[in-house]
Fold each of these.
Amino acid sequence: MNSTIVLKLNTVRNEALTYIDELIRESWKDENQAIGYPRCKDLSELVAEIEIYENTIEHCVYTVTRNGDRVGMVGFLHSPGDSEGYLIGPFLNPTINRAIWLPRVLTKFISKLHNDHQHVDACVVETNNLLCDTLVGMNWKELNRQTEMKWELGTEATTIHDDKFNFSELIIKENSAFNQIAEVMGNGLGWESPKTRLVQYLDEAYKVHYVTDQTNKVMGAVIWTIVGGTDFGRLEYLAVNPADRRNGIGAQLIHYVFQQTERAGIPRLYLSLDSNNTNALRLYKKVGFKETVRSVIFRKQLSD
């Protein structure tokens, strides 16, 4: 009698999309299977996240089969040509022993990536103890802990208005405002090559808004986006010139983004930040954000 078990990762076909959608929906409802990023409530949101990376579900997600039967899914969120990305899942059928099959699926997944990528990161909700323990046992390195927060239209918050400040959207590259914003972002967020990075966000259609004083000096800036195909946006980066901090500039920038999302008919806005950044957590709570989940960030180095 042949008891060999064959585990395979298969490119996603149309007939598997409903199955994948069911797994994603289940992981959204069950905090013991949840991941922090990409954190999606259904397949349409995952597809939207993948499209941000200019990729397709066929190149990012695999169904997992055991002796031909579907038992789960796993994926790699990345842009074409990039050497790094994020683990999607794994999400496995509730009928199988996840403690046994999680490491086997991850081993298969890593072997598939090994020749083409430098590292893969995993953002796992803290309550997903089994996946966290599995990654630690497989020598994934913990990098930090992240807190996800959400703002919803209609949330009451402290609003700050000051007519001394002007809000604008950055559209033109390589002008005075561009150079100042790059400097503010570089100093505030520790970016290397901030001008190059800012150009990349503009090229990828992220929105960059900034605030200036009456002398046209840039005091702070925010980078955010509306995730296409969904009803939410994401606040990515906020930075204020050190000399202008403690003057409510950050709060005013966030409220300006709230106004823009409301005009666009977007009722929800998410962000993620280091859980140890207590000053930022305090600011976001003050303007109306609420914590949703806390996650552990792991990294698996694949090559030197």
Note: The first strand starts at residue 7 and ends at 11.
Amino acid sequence: MENDILISMDFGDTESALTRHEINYDHYQYNNVIIDPMYDFYTTPFSLKGLGDLLLTNGHHGRLPAFKANLMLKYFQKNKIVGYGTLKNAAIDFCALGNCYFELIRNKLGTVLGIRHIPALNMRRMQDGSYCFLQRDDLNQYQFKLIKFPKGKIIHLFDYTCLTQIYGIPYWIGALQSILMGEESRIAVRKTFKNGSYKTTLLAVSGISKDKMTKIEAKLEEKKGIAEVGTMLFDFPTGTDISKAITVLPVGDLTKVDFTQLMNQSASDILEAWGVPPELAGMIPEQNAGSRDLFKIMVQYYEFEIIPFQQLFLVLNDFLPKDSQLVFENEKINTFNTLMPAA
């Protein structure tokens, strides 16, 4: 029958963190570390590109690697061989990707004259124990040119994990879903403002000719995805019961979802995974309305999180001359108390 019309319309897909940054969920699945059959290096347990992209998806997570690196080097004593920037870049790599690499620069006698940071994103361990840097082919992103380093040239620092002894895994990986939840919640809020609403409805009509139905469909298409308030005119015969001819059926309304709570929960989960007290991140703990002693919080965090982090990098002293050892003057943390305003 002419009036038996079924119209299927696509009102567009939601924009997510995964598609926006070309991130695939496969990047966040643990993969067994195996030998790459083509290049003879060990594959990584997670996509390092995927882990790096996560820094772009969440403001709290993206800021924390640099925050921790800066705090680690707060009382770093100037060194003539190892520069501040070298350690900072390596610390950011370690925090974000779970691994960092240094290249030893020696003279002909074997004395270390310098240490250079090598970006962890493209570093791989070879089957024979040496390391290589993956340089992408300009014409084919899936092809690599391997820049190989001799044994003993690269220092690889990573935290031990029971899953693999070849590479490290960042300790915040357990907060992966919270990182993505925070991003998706912000996108949902932004889309609400952009569209004027985040509601899904079904428009049911009856007693309308196919020609008029086509015109209605065209008008609805014009309104898709833009924040406008419009008016649509329907021409019905005299005496028609409009309430029966047109029915709007609500299907979903995401504006009723408390996205602010979701974003706050995401931020809280991320800080817990990083081991950072919320006060140091500029947040007020929801479960503790009263103010806490910021100096005590800083000292405790520095003692139990930053100093152990520094110890990891002190392994470099095994390769440095005695007059160029890494030194962190951590006793200066007590001067932080003098910077605090009087109660």
Note: Strands lie at 99-106, 112-118, 123-125, 131-136, 144-149, 154-158, 199-205, 246-253.
